[in-house]
Write a structure and sequence with these properties.
By secondary structure, this protein is an alpha+beta fold. It is 25% helix and 24% strand. It has four helices and eight strands; from the N terminus they run ααββαβββαβββ.
């Protein structure tokens, strides 16, 4: 480890170099947040069910030509490589054969144990990356926190809406799509 890495943390290139040399295995549950390699807790059954449910819902509502990726790498800046639960990204799957996406119309994180990290750290990362809409599906309190109007320079969102029940979720890139907060939580 060089002095820069020790003081400043990892950048995207040094992070992926750890994968290439086998220090980080492809199936290790880690992500790069603000230069730090952060371990992710194993997902609960509820978390997995909600991620699958929301991914399918978005695919149906946004159209079959929309690329909805689940739990895959997103390049959010020079020192940030999160693995969002869901990302709605431009283009088609073949566009990402040689590079990971660095733009998204929507990112969704499903949170129970990761609620504070997602609300504070990841919302700043996604705002800084210019993601226009970030939804945080709060499994603890059974509502959706909807962040819109990203201010890249401030690394924050100007608007935050706590949505529940029949409230419609804002999705600026898809104004025709009607998705209500309660629909993100599967029945049962």
């Amino acid at each position: 480890m060089d002095l820069y890495t020790a003081l400043e943390g990892y950048d995207v290139d040094s992070y992926f170099a750890l994968v290439e040399c086998g220090v980080i295995a492809p199936d290790d549950r880690v992500e790069l947040l603000e230069g730090l390699i952060v371990s992710m807790a194993p997902p609960s059954p509820m978390h997995c069910a909600v991620v699958c449910h929301v991914q399918e819902l978005l695919h149906r509502r946004l159209g079959h030509k929309t690329l909805v990726r689940g739990q895959m790498t997103f390049l959010a800046g020079p020192r940030c490589v999160p693995e969002p639960d869901i990302a709605v990204v431009p283009g088609c799957n073949s566009d990402y054969m040689h590079r990971h996406p660095s733009a998204a119309a929507l990112i969704v994180e499903v949170a129970d144990s990761s609620l504070v990290q997602d609300r504070i750290t990841k919302s700043a990362i996604y705002a800084g990356a210019g993601v226009p809409a970030f939804w945080l599906v709060n499994l603890r309190d059974h509502h959706v926190e909807c962040y819109t109007s990203a201010d890249r320079a401030q690394r924050s969102y100007r608007n935050c809406l706590r949505a529940e029940g029949q409230m419609q979720l804002p999705l600026p890139a898809y104004p025709h799509a009607v998705i209500r907060a309660e629909e993100l939580f599967p029945k049962g």
